[in-house]
Amino acid sequence: MKALHDSNVTNQFGPRAKAYVESAVHSQGADLARIGEIAAATAPARAIDLGCGGGHVTYAMAPHAAETFACDLSTDMLAAVRDTAAARGFDGVRTTRTSVEALPFESASFDMLGCRFSAHHWQDVDAGLREGRRVLKPGAPAVFVDVVAPPAPLLDTHLQGVELLRDTSHVRDYSVLEWQRKLEAAGFAVKQIGTWQLRMDFPVWIARMATPEPLAVAIRMVQDSAAEEVRRHFAIEPDGSFLLDMAIFETVAV
Description:
7 strands; Rossmann fold; single chain
């Protein structure tokens, strides 16, 4: 089952590598700047980007690290990261095709970890977090950024539904409390959590994933028929644009 899911993730994202490298949502943000600040303060010999996608965490860490390993399932994504890193003069960037749940690295071999907008695609997020902890040295910083689910079941169900319709490789957006518990169970001490909302421009959001038209129509039907408290929380606009709940978890490997 895991191999089939990994194949679905690869098929979904591989053809969209260029779109994710160029995506304004993915290439900008105070959270990304914060990862760069932590990398600058850490000056890691080896940093790792789990589920690198378009490579934006890699590019944030690379100026401050001797080597930065960008890890992803998609060969197309990794090729785009290699090209972009080379164009930006990041000679220390290395790419590795791997599942986050079985990293091909020795234990305690990295000095910093970054992971952004990836974990909601992992079939076994607990195993991925444990692997991330395994390859980190004790005391090394690890920063995780992702969409988070609101605690109210009504809002949670709406979020998971539209995410899955837009991208069938979606597994789950976890709540802040779920994230805290999973990180601590995997061996991370959570030092700081930041939350905010990020606007998704519906036409851009749909185009980036090349969501089939029937599924895009289904999302709009779900939005239009949603309860008022759902529409209010996600600030759903007439064209379908809306707000996502986001969180950054600054942690240390213990």
